[in-house]
Structure formats: C-alpha cells, structure tokens
Amino acid sequence: MTADERWMDAALRQARRALGLSSPNPAVGAVVVRDGMRVGEGHTQPPGGPHAEVMALRAAGERARGATLYVTLEPCAHHGRTPPCTEAVRHAGITRVVAAMEDPHAIVAGRGFAVLRAAGIAVDVGVREQPARAHLEAYIKHVRTGMPLGLLKCALSLDGKIATRTGDSRWVSGEAARRWVHRLRQEFDAVAVGVGTLLRDDPQLTVRLPGKRRDPLRVVFDTQARTPPDARLFAAGGPVIIATSEHAPAERVAALEARGATILRLPEMDGRVSLDAAFRELGARGVMSVLLEGGGTVAAAALAAGVIDRVLFFLAPRLVGGREAPTPVEGLGVATMAEALRLERLRVRRVGEDLAVEAHVHRDC
C-alpha cells in the first residue's frame, strides 16, 4: 500500500462519520498531511455547515501551508450554502490535492480540479476510487436519478422464515446482527416499513446505540392511513412521513397530521401506494438512502417497483417450519426460475451467531 492510499483510507474513515448527517450533501472525509504527519482531519457537517475540506483545514491551521490534502471527493468550486472549498484550499496554502474521484454532480464535474490546477496546486485523482464510489453509492444514484438508494434488510431462519406461524419474530437474529441494524439506521437518511409491520410490531424505528448521533427519518407505507395515532414511532419524537394513497380516508389523515406526521398523498399501483412515487418524492426532499425493514409484502412490492438496489439478509441458525409462517418476499412470485431476480457482488460474513449475506440487485443496462 502506498502512502497516498494509506492517507486516503484515513480520509474514507472520516467520510463514514458523515453518513446520515450530511444529506443532501455527500458524506466526504478529508485529511491534511505535512512531512508525513497528519495535521488535520474532518468530515462533512450537516447542511449549511462546513464541508470536509474546511473542517480538516481548520484543524490544521498554519500547518496546512505546504501540505497535501487528501479528500474522498472533488472539492466544490461554486457558492451554495457555503463558500467554495477550492477557495479555502487555496488560501490555506495547500500545495497538492489527492482526490479519490470526480464529483458526478453537474455543478462540479471537474470544475473544482480545474480551479485548483489554475491556482498552481498539483492535483492527483483516482486514489482508492472504488472504495470511495462504494461509500458514495447513495449520493451518486441520487445525483444521476433523483432517487434514493434502497437497501432491503431482513432477518430470517435457515429455512427462510421471518416469523413463526403466529407472527412471533422476536428475535430471529442475534444481538450482533441487531446492533449492525442500529448502526445502519444511524447511517441511512430514512428507515421505512409497511403498515403491516407497524400494526403487528409497533416499532419505534429509532437508533438504540450508546452515544448515538441521530435518529433517521421514519417512513410508513400506508395506503389507507391505518397507522394508529398512538403508535410508538410518534412517542419517540423526530420526523415521521406517512405515504398514503390519494384515496385514504380524510379523517384518518387528519388524525395523523395532528400527531405531527407529514402526509404524502401518492398514486396507487396494484391497489397499494406506489413505492416508485414514494421514493421519488423522498428523493425530491433530499433523502438519499432508505433502509427498508418491512415484511414480505412491502419487500415484494419494493422489488417489483425497482426501488431496491441492495439486499442484506441475516440468516439465523434456526428452523421454524410451517406453511403459514411468513417469508422475506411474499406476493405471487415469478412463474419460472428464469424470471427470478438476480443478485450480484455477493458477500457473506459471520456476524455473531448469524450469517450476513449482502448483494446488489442486478440491473439490465
């Protein structure tokens, strides 16, 4: 591993700290290095706050003069809520910038690098680009499509059941897997369930970790506005969105609005609120990532709507059995194996007593 790669890995670790905090801005990390020593580091702050480069340069102070800046994404060169990062880099006296990748946003797209080079600053691009792209997957999708990245998460027994025939599901997976899910909730902009899961489990959908930074936006896909006004997710505080159909009963909608919920009235698809429309509306509101934790019905609808990009299944060493026990993906299903949704970039690892299987949904481009 080269020195540039080592320092870029340090910048990527900083970038991870911004996940869930920076949207709709990208979660970027930066490190300032002078004479082989780290003299400053930082990550993107919540919208309106400083970007990663500025945080790192502030930490470095005068030690930034003559130093190298490692950053996981191209510095911006435009005025938004904050001044251009290229100006901060230039004024700090940085002599070299090493970036993992170019910013795909049309307002940047190489302009930041051009400004830096015009100022006489050496620029190298592409160090640890693939890890940076993986980290910024949600941002890249949002920039290109306006849609948030969708991750379908579920825990299931080795024989493919997410609950018993009576609906009992606490707990399918072990403690280590559940901690991982809470870390995901902290990193994703939104966590979503279908109304069936909400009525059955009454979840809070909050982060329950020591020293937690934030709770995500909570979203319920609820065609007929059946969410009870006394549901626990309201008691937990924080923003809640209920995505209903245009035909949801007005009195139920009013009761949910009185509890502080934001109501999205959306078109229907096959008798249920359109998940494509819901994801588009979330994307328009700056949501770049959605963690879907719902049951088999909403999972099937989300996969059919094409809003799921990745899956994360926790396989528990249990056998449940039962024809009536629910499975992760319900609905009619495909008629032939040739029609099955293909997964790629498979990764399997042990998480406590469970196996975590991660994959991307194959898309024909």
Oligomer: single chain
**Low-confidence regions:** none
Distance between the termini: 34 Å
**What is the total domain count?**
2
Number-wise, the strands total: 16
- Can you name the CATH architecture of the largest domain? 3-Layer(aba) Sandwich
Query: Major sheet, described briefly?
Result: 9 strands, mixed
CA gyration radius, whole angstroms: 22 Å
Describe the structure.
It is a single chain. With 365 residues, the protein is of the alpha/beta class. The protein has 2 domains: 3-136, Cytidine Deaminase, domain 2; 147-361, Dihydrofolate Reductase, subunit A. 30% of the residues lie in helices and 24% in strands. The chain has 12 helices and 16 strands. The strands form 3 sheets. The protein has a 9-stranded mixed beta sheet, sandwiched between helices. A 5-stranded mixed beta sheet has the order 2-1-3-4-5, sandwiched between helices. It has a two-stranded antiparallel ribbon with strand order 11-12. Helix 3 (85-92) runs parallel beside helix 4. 44% of the residues are buried.
For the structure shown, list the relevant keywords:
single chain; 365 residues; alpha/beta; Cytidine Deaminase, domain 2; Dihydrofolate Reductase, subunit A; 2 domains; nine-stranded mixed sheet; 16 strands; 30% helix
